[in-house]
Amino acid sequence: MSNEEQAQKDEAQPVNEAAIDATAEQADAEVEELSAEQARILELEAALAASEATLAAQKDSVMRAIADADNVRKRAEGEVDKARKFALEKFASELLPVADNLERALQVADKENEAIKPVIEGVDITLKSFVSSIEKFGMKVIDPQGETFNPEQHQAMSMQENAELPANTVMAVMQKGYELNGRLLRPAMVMVSRAPEGGVDTQA
């Protein structure tokens, strides 16, 4: 190798070292920049997770509040409906003797007596009109003649053996019962059939 070539090589050597140093510095800068970006990403991810958790908690609170409000509304509607249906319960109970008296009048009247026939017809029309009127307000007559004894609606006043009817059949209605919008106001008082060897369970 000539002296000139050696000199050129010696001159090139510092240039290469400078280039290496510059590359190393650039790499360090990129690493620092990347680390800063990663830290920022982690920070944003943590903030996003916290925001999502807060949103989920707030959504849960809102759903609970909506459910509570809906429950309160339903309870209020139920109470209003119950009050509307049964506000007349006491008044309706006071009307029952009126119907009983009209029915008794028809039962004891002498239907063969022409002189009182118009009165009997008037009482019958009045009773039918009365029953029709109270039914408009949710009252219902319980007249279980010939039906199976139901302790939830009937009160057995007596039992009588009867081979022609199945046991626990209502043979006679001594006093009709009434209910108001499905609630029993008064049970029907009845006579119930029984087989010679058995009776009827009159307990509710």
Structure commentary:
There is one protein chain. The strands form two sheets. The protein has a three-stranded antiparallel β-sheet. A three-stranded mixed β-sheet has the order 2-6-3, with no helix packed on it. 10% of the residues are buried. It contains three helices and six strands. A hairpin with a 2-residue loop joins strand 4 and strand 5. The radius of gyration is 48 Å and the shape is rod-shaped. It has 204 residues and is of the alpha+beta class. Helix content is 60%, strand content 16%.
Summarize the structure.
By secondary structure, the chain is an alpha+beta fold. It is built from 3 helices and 6 strands; from the N terminus they run αααββββββ.
Query: How big a fraction of the residues is strand?
Result: 15-25%
Q: What is the alpha-carbon Rg in Å?
A: 48 Å
Number of helices: 3
CATH architecture of the largest domain: Roll
**What's the count of strands?**
6
N-to-C span: 126 Å
The residue ranges in which pLDDT falls below 50 over 5 or more consecutive positions are none
Main pleated-sheet profile: 3 strands, antiparallel
User: What is the highest CATH level, the class of the largest domain?
Assistant: Mainly Beta
Order of helices and strands: HHHEEEEEE
Strand order of the largest sheet: 1-4-5
Q: What is the residue-averaged pLDDT?
A: 81
**CATH-defined superfamily of the largest domain:** Head domain of nucleotide exchange factor GrpE
Q: What is the approximate shape? A: rod-shaped
Write the layout of secondary structure elements.
Elements: H1 3-86, H2 89-108, H3 117-135, E1 139-142, E2 154-161, E3 170-175, E4 177-180, E5 183-186, E6 188-194
Parallel strand pairs: 2-6
Antiparallel strand pairs: 1-4, 3-6, 4-5
